[in-house]
Design goal:
The protein has about 200 residues and is mainly α. About 50% of the residues lie in helices and about 5% in strands. It folds into two domains: about 5-75 and about 190-195, Glutaredoxin (3-Layer(aba) Sandwich); about 75-185, Up-down Bundle (Glutathione S-transferase Yfyf (Class Pi), Chain A, domain 2), CATH 1.20.1050.10. A two-stranded parallel sheet has the order 1-2. The mean pLDDT is about 95. The structure holds glutathione (GSH).
């Protein structure tokens, strides 16, 4: 990997976490969305969809967290065919349902034009969060999603988990999610990304 633009507190945290896990050599470019760094040259040159993550790799620019994680850490995916498919099922769920539930809180303008539509989407978030957290609580089987094996989906969930308190999630209602978060937070890679300003 040549260059990786990341933003504190966003889904790009999942990718930086896995880059650290695999000991990748990469140039980290931290962008501050709040400070409007998105208009900076470093940012505008890269993400084709205007979103992070979008690493520049030897093969070109990649987007979509699930695809990027599989690219940088294929050896971290479960080996057994069913477990590998299950990993993908959970990863897609995180990207296409859980992440989108969260985006409905503040980014309704992506899907609608009326303030009443935004208000309606935002009002639904506590319900969709409860439903999606219940699903995730159910799929976690051990210290990590796949028992003792730390996989890219754990990193993906770790990044999304950061948003939950702000999304009206009562984390004590999900003991397996809370335990998984503690297990990941204890990994040296998390201390490293915190030092790099990602958390
Ligand atoms: N489907 C994409 C979503 C990427 C995404 O929405 N990233 C957000 C940060 S969490 C972003 O860049 N937002 C900037 C914006 O909406 O302008 C993925 O899973 O990688």
């Amino acid at each position: 990997m040549l260059k990786f633009i990341a933003t504190k507190g966003t889904i790009s945290v999942a990718v930086v976490l896995v880059l650290e896990e695999v000991g990748a050599d990469y140039e980290l470019c931290l962008i501050d969305f709040a400070a409007e760094d998105r208009r900076s040259q470093a940012y505008l040159e890269i993400p084709p969809k205007g979103r992070v993550p979008a690493p520049v790799t030897e093969g070109g620019i990649l987007t979509e967290t699930v695809a990027i994680l599989e690219y940088i850490a294929p050896h971290m995916l479960p080996k057994h065919a069913f477990a590998c498919a299950k990993h993908r099922e959970i990863s897609y769920y995180l990207a296409t349902t859980k992440h989108i539930n969260h985006a409905h809180k503040l980014r309704g303008f992506r899907w609608a034009d009326l303030q009443t539509s935004y208000d309606d989407m935002r009002a639904k978030v506590p319900q969709t969060m409860v439903e999606s957290c219940a699903y995730l609580e159910d799929v976690i089987v051990g210290q990590y999603i796949f028992w003792a094996e730390f996989t890219p989906a754990d990193a993906h969930l770790f990044a999304i988990r950061q948003w939950m308190a702000g999304d009206w999630v009562e984390i004590q209602n999900y003991p397996k999610l809370a335990q998984l978060q503690r297990s990941i937070a204890a990994r040296p890679s998390v201390a490293t990304i915190a030092e790099k300003g990602l958390l």
